[in-house]
Structure to design on (1176 residues):
């Protein structure tokens, strides 16, 4: 890396390994003075891991971090703060029951005769907030102010303590347009003061509005760093969701895949308020439907209402022409549904139970407690799937939490395959698993559909969807906006559909207008 | 490895702790292991331990299952008091013995149902949900007995507390039978595994199709049922229902028995047999203190010291350290990881 | 019906003020601790009976074990302008203010059963039993009964550290002083409960050669004695003959045991604290005679010679 006098913070070749998964590999990142730098990527891309390495919350396994040219090695977040790197999270981590002034100076109050000098605290707090054009009563409790004001107070504290680099981790997630505008005014002011600001968000409009450069991560790897102004929205999405391999995979996919089985599962006006708008979907036997969309577009929510994990409040579902009750997971399982959730740890594995028990669980639950699966049968099931899916474990009695992410994922798949499902929903089946397991799971999806199973696969890996999907549903803003079939299924077209027509005035665009 | 071998390994720490305590007591009181037959039943300090430990053992059975679901049942002591009071007032108002037992066990089941619904349906934290009945229960029991000790003379009911069967006191026969029944129920059906699954990860279990609310309610009902039997025994033992004192603080002893038995308060893997051993460990300490002849001022200190010692012995950190030392003493074995 | 009444009482914490007999020349407010024991319930019953006997209007308030409820009740009595206040204080401290208010309103206060840490001028008198004396009476009975024969005594103490346990032990030991034939060989707490009384007695029997070394049991209350009697029977011995049983309180159940020959003696802690209090009050109202600051109730000894079955019948209805 060529030394750039403007660079305030640079991270070189950062590695971070978690048991069973490489969270960051060889990631470079640099931040200039007076710059707002967006850090983008889907869930699990490594954004928060990178930030945590920078702030000392995690200890990196490789690479160097330079702050103003000097190598640093923060032991923890406090250490990072002292060095000059402050962080403000979406959930303000201040003390709501203390006053604004106390929050600003907690742990470093001016003292007089060994006692806290409250008058001085309040005076200095007012002075500090005046820089942010915030004229509030600093003696009021923090919780009497809105989240946006609390954000600004948190920023004021972080900047006052640290003063060189400010990391904003999804600060706008729960703010309205007006509040976003106020926050951005503060950010611009700090930028003018020469701070380096890292900005993490899911709102692309805000990226274009406030940032100078973007760095995009995917699967723990650096995709690239670009000037925001010269980066097209479409290209940005492609970088986030992956496209480099598009050409090759596309050829391989053999374009016009169609399933010619009868329609078995029909969803009409199916949806749930605030989660996913009513949609229509017909699924044939032996068909793989890919679901694409950005995080928060309603893709996981689509899976949840279909499986009954969240009860649909509109529409009907029919299976082979007969009305089907899908109001709970148990009801859905009765109709031979299966669901591998996105978050394996909290929604999938039963950590302390053995691989065998995890595989047998759904089948056992369907049979009921009074009809236990004989131990010999459980052993046989476990052995069969450990072999068939190549689950790497020393033996079937090992607690599943000790397995790597990919093997956990395969065990959960085995759990559903053991129930002989006819309709299987996979939410991000390849997230956070190593390359080998990744390919195996894709192969498995194809084998299952050849056997006549209907599959819904949600993935933020677009090339992957292109490989196995017969049809791809694209979601945006909780709405099923498009259905691509046959030759339409290309990385290019999926990315374009996700990006959508960019002219709809978004809330932050409106906010930008307000500022101007 | 055989099943017996596997269970034996699981219960080894509890057996060792029990053996050490019994050894200590026999040093302080040499006649400790004496057993004789008197009035057609075994008689001796060891039998006293089995007999006096009956209420805590019964409570520990239900508590184990509840704790396995990541819950806790603070109400069992109060439910004992309620059920003792109900049994006493039913038998004194002329109900037959079977009817009395049925009513009492029914009340215990209702108490469990109440807790279970609060936890499973209304999603209230178990410690809070069962605290309600813990506080209110003793009041309810006092209302049933009108604040006095309600005595009875029904020979049948008294037999449950102080009669004997196969040479063993009835309470011993009852808790051992209950322990075996519950252990069979959870291990011969899929209940045990499903309960453990719910305890480890309730959300994931629900998504896998496990009917978590039913299982949770069943766990608390079992706990209420065990508490009602314990309540009957406690009342039958003294031929009277003492609403103020029956089962007082026994919920804590039951939780302690489960903990000594090695079942984690965080839910998941459980062993009824280990909890029963835990209950016997606690009772051995109690009986040992009484036999030793120390002034009563020391009772609680001695008990606390022994329990701290046992828990420290069982702590994973210490076991890790011990394993480390024994490994560094022995020649390093390459097969170490495989043996695990 | 009683059930419902109790229930509604339980909901109104401070309340439960209902009057006893009407048409009287005097109104007395009585703030009772609660009904935590049979003896307490009996005290309430006897107090109401004694008031009725004298034609006194008794306003009764149950404090549910809470001092704040008692203070509220006392203030309400003062506001109603009663002629006197009886209070069985739940704790010893924190009474100065409200007793001062009563004094300012010229309402005499009489403490029942327990005393308070407050200036003696703030109340007229306290009617209580002498716990040391009770233990002494029990001890004396044993000294007389054994008449110099050697005798090993086991003792079931009350809850460790409680004043009845300390005082009843002290009084008993004082009575035994100088009688070397009597030796306390084992002493453990039975927490004043039947269950623990039975459990501890079982261990005494094991520890003392199956009970053959024990000649007498002294229990700090009757409940523990009742539990211990069962343990003695289950060990194949005859309580009352093989092992003498003496205890304190005189609750109905011990009279049943005495009638069956299974217990030998009990010392009464009378539930009638109100009777002497009403008498002192009447004397004061009549000719202004201030009673002494402490009225000691009688600690009466009952033995098998006192027709225990009759006493049992008489006491049964008192709510023990």
């Amino acid at each position: 890396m060529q030394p750039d006098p403007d660079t305030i913070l640079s991270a070189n070749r950062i590695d971070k390994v978690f048991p069973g998964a490489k969270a960051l590999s060889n990631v470079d990142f640099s931040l200039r003075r007076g710059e707002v730098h967006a850090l983008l990527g889907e869930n699990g891309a490594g954004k928060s891991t990178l930030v945590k390495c920078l702030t000392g919350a995690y200890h990196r396994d490789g690479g160097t971090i330079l702050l103003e040219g000097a190598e640093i090695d923060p032991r923890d977040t406090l250490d990072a703060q002292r060095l000059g790197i402050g962080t403000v999270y979406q959930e303000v981590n201040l003390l709501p029951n203390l006053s604004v002034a106390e929050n600003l100076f907690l742990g470093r109050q001016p003292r007089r005769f060994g006692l806290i000098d409250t008058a001085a605290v309040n005076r200095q707090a007012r002075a500090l907030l005046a820089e942010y054009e915030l004229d509030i009563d600093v003696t009021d409790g923090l919780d009497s102010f809105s989240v946006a004001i609390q954000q600004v107070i948190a920023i004021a504290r972080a900047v006052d303590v640290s003063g060189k680099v400010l990391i904003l981790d999804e600060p706008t997630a729960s703010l309205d347009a007006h509040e976003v505008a106020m926050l951005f005014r503060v950010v611009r002011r700090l930028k003018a003061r020469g701070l380096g600001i890292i900005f993490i968000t899911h709102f692309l409009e805000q990226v274009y509005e406030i940032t100078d450069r973007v760095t995009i991560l995917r699967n723990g790897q650096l995709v690239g760093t670009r000037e925001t102004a010269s980066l097209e929205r479409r290209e940005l999405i492609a970088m986030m969701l992956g496209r480099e391999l598009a050409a090759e995979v596309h050829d391989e996919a053999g374009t016009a895949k169609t399933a010619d089985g009868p329609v078995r599962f029909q969803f009409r006006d199916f949806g749930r308020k605030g989660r996913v708008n009513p949609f229509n979907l017909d699924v044939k036997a032996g068909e793989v439907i890919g679901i694409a969309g950005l995080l928060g577009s309603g893709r996981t929510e689509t899976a949840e209402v279909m499986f009954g994990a969240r009860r649909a409040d509109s529409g009907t579902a029919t299976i082979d022409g007969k009305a089907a009750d899908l109001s709970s997971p148990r009801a859905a399982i009765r109709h031979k549904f299966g669901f591998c959730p996105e978050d394996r740890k909290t929604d999938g594995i039963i950590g302390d139970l053995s691989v065998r028990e995890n595989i047998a669980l759904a089948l056992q639950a369907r049979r009921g407690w009074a009809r236990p699966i004989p131990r010999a049968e459980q052993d046989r099931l476990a052995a069969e799937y450990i072999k068939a899916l190549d689950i790497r474990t020393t033996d079937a009695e090992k607690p599943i939490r000790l397995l790597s992410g990919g093997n956990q994922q395969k065990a959960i798949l085995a759990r559903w395959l053991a129930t002989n499902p006819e309709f299987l929903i996979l939410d991000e089946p390849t997230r956070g698993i190593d390359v080998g397991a990744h390919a195996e799971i894709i192969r498995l999806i194809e084998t299952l559909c050849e056997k006549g199973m209907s599959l819904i696969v949600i993935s933020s890996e677009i090339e992957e969807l292109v490989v196995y999907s017969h049809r791809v549903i694209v979601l945006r803003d909780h709405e099923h906006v498009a259905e691509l079939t046959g030759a339409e299924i290309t990385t290019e077209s999926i990315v374009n559909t996700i990006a959508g027509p960019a002219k709809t005035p978004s809330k932050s665009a409106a906010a930008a207008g307000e500022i101007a | 490895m055989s099943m017996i071998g596997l269970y034996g390994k699981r219960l080894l720490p509890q057996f060792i702790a029990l053996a050490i305590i019994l050894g200590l007591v026999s040093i302080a009181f040499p006649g400790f292991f004496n057993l004789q037959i008197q009035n057609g039943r075994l008689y001796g300090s060891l039998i006293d331990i089995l007999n006096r430990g009956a209420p805590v053992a019964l409570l520990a059975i239900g508590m184990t299952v509840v704790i396995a679901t990541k819950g806790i049942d603070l109400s069992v002591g109060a439910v004992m008091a309620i059920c003792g009071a109900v049994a006493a007032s039913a038998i004194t108002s002329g109900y037959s013995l079977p009817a009395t037992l049925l009513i009492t066990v029914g009340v215990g089941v209702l108490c469990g149902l109440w807790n279970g619904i609060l936890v499973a349906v209304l999603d209230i934290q178990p410690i809070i949900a069962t605290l309600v009945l813990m506080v209110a229960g003793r009041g309810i029991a006092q209302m049933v007995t009108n604040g006095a000790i309600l005595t009875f003379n029904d020979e049948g009911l008294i037999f449950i507390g102080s009669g004997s069967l196969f040479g063993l006191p009835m309470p011993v026969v009852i808790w051992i039978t209950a322990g075996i029944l519950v252990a069979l129920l959870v291990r011969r059906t899929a209940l045990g595994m499903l309960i453990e699954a719910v305890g480890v990860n309730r959300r994931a279990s629900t998504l896998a199709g496990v009917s978590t609310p039913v299982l949770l309610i069943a766990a608390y009902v079992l706990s209420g049922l065990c508490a009602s039997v314990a309540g009957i025994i406690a009342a039958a033992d003294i031929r009277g229902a003492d609403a103020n004192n029956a089962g007082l603080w026994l919920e804590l002893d039951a939780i302690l028995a489960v903990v000594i038995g090695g079942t984690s308060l965080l839910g998941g893997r459980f062993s009824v047999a280990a909890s029963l051993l835990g209950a016997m460990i606690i009772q051995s300490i109690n009986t040992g203190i009484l036999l030793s002849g120390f002034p009563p001022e020391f009772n609680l200190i001695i008990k606390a010291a022994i329990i701290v010692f046992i828990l420290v012995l069982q702590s994973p950190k210490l076991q890790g350290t011990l394993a480390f030392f024994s490994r560094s003493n022995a020649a390093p074995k390459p097969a170490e990881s495989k043996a695990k | 019906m009683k059930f419902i009444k109790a229930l509604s009482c339980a909901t109104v914490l401070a309340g439960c003020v209902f009057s006893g007999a009407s048409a009287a020349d005097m109104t007395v407010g009585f703030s009772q601790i609660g009904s935590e024991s049979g003896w307490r319930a009996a005290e309430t019953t006897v107090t109401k009976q004694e008031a009725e006997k004298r034609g006194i209007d008794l306003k009764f308030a149950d404090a549910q074990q809470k001092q704040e409820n008692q203070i509220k009740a006392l203030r309400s009595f003062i506001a109603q302008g009663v002629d006197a206040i009886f209070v069985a204080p739940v704790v010893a401290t924190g009474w100065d203010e409200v007793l001062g208010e009563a004094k300012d309103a010229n309402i005499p206060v009489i403490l029942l059963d327990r005393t308070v840490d407050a200036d003696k001028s703030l109340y007229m008198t306290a009617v209580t039993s002498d716990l040391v004396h009770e233990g002494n009476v029990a001890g004396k009975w044993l000294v007389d009964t054994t008449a110099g024969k050697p005798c090993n005594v086991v003792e079931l103490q009350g809850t460790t550290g409680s004043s009845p346990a300390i005082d009843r032990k002290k009084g008993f030991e004082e009575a035994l002083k100088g009688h070397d034939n009597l030796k306390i060989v084992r002493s453990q707490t039975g927490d004043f409960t039947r269950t623990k009384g039975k459990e501890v007695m079982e261990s005494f029997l094991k520890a003392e050669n199956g009970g053959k070394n024990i000649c007498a049991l002294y229990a700090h209350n009757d409940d523990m004695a009742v539990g211990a009697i069962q343990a003695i029977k289950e060990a194949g011995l005859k309580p009352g003959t093989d092992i003498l049983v003496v205890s304190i309180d005189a609750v109905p159940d011990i009279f049943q045991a005495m009638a069956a020959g299974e217990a030998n003696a009990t010392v009464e802690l009378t539930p009638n604290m109100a009777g002497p209090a009403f008498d002192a009050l009447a004397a004061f109202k009549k000719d202004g005679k201030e009673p002494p600051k402490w009225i000691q109730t009688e600690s009466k000894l009952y033995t098998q010679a006192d027709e225990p079955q009759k006493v049992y019948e008489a006491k049964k209805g008192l709510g023990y």
